[in-house]
Amino acid sequence: MLPASILALTAILAPSLVSAGMFPKDSLVKMLDAKTFKTAMKANETSLVAFVAPWCGHCQKMVPEYSKAALGLYPLIPTYAVNCHAEKNKRLCSEQGVQGFPTVKLFPRGSQLPPILFDSERSASGFWYFATRRVPKHYEKIPYVEGIAPWIESNTDKHRILLLTKDKKVPLLWTVLANKYAHTKLALASHRDRKGRSSVKMGLEPGGPKEPKVLVYPIGSTTPVRYEGLNKHDSLSKFFDSILDGTADLSKVIEESKKELYEQTPEEAEIERKQEAQKIALLHGGYTDLIDFEKAMLNGGADYHDTNGYGGMMGSIPEHLKKKPAAAETPSVSIGSEAPSSAAATAPPTARPADEL
Question: SUPFAM superfamilies per the record (predicted)?
Fold first, then answer.
């Protein structure tokens, strides 16, 4: 047997040694402490939070599944973790009623609604289902084109924003935005325009097979203004914020949104590559470590990334909004050589504090 002093030292060091690599460096799970938790809850968005301890074996087993779920949910539903072993977080974990590890909770709308305890199988599909199905639905779903005019006319005290989508299901992005801007001067609705016939009846072009349309009806008006910017989470959020701000003319806000070009960062490109791997796994029998995600996406919609896009985008990127790379920016790669990963090349290793995961 080991001397008591060595056992005591091992007990002290073990948590920090385990915690140093609990979540992979490329994981999209963001660590929170007591201060950043409060900030996250002020965002009024749906988020998933795991309360864990680095010495917990069940937590360590959960990490790969939770990380896969974070990738599938990104960036529409933030996925967080709190290290309850850290002294600075113990009060927060106590306030959240954490009595065992791991404890995973869904916060439907930040601090505005009570959290929901996750009590199902700790798999990627389990987390994914749990989160996507519980985003509060603060939008109006209009099944027939004849119902659009009455909806517009009955909400003239708000800015009405109508999504015309080709998809059978309301995109998760639209559900997330409707939840985020609930109880504001924005009212969101969705109408399925599968073949573009509704668009034609409304005096618009049918549009491409995956082309959504976003129409804005300003307060007091029944005449729409068309949003022609990027249908991304951050772009639409910025646009909605500008409408609510009210200091700028709406036509100018529309024009500004049309100037934003789509340009991926190396980090975004790497995330898209991994999300594409999830889709390939789904369509072609998959890799064993993605079987759970296959089940989730098969039942929740095999076109998940087609509908929601990468980086939370609806539909494809219009050609005129794509930034054209300069010829000099494209490095040549000789046959037999391997191009280095831009994400790996630009991301230097960073040391983790001992009490972080």
Answer: Thioredoxin-like
Per-residue pLDDT at 336 exceeds 60: no
What does residue 75 show for φ and ψ, rounded to 5 degrees?
-100, 15
- Side by side, the strands of the sheet bearing 159-165 are 139-141, 186-192, 159-165, 213-217, 225-227
The residue type at 18: V
Q: What are residue 225's DSSP bridge partners?
A: 216
- From the number of C-beta atoms within 10 Å of its C-beta (0-12, 13-18, 19+), residue 266 rates as middle
Is the model more confident about 342 or about 247?
A: 247
| 296: CB partners within 8 A, 6+ apart | 72, 124, 125, 128, 129
Question: Measured at the alpha carbon of residue 183, what is the angle toward residues 177 and 184, in degrees to the nearest 5?
Answer: 75
Q: What percent of the chain is modeled with pLDDT above 70?
A: 72
Dist CA 292 CA 85 (whole Å): 29
Whose tokens are 């050589």? That residue is 337
Query: Which residues on neighbouring strands pair with residue 141, listed in sequence order?
Result: 190
CB 113, CB 43: distance < 8 Å: no
- Contact between residue 19 and residue 351 where contact means Cβ atoms under 8 Å apart: no
Separation in Å, CA 241 to CA 23, 74, 183, 218, 311? 34, 21, 14, 14, 19
Q: Quick one: how far is CA 104 from the chain centroid?
A: 18
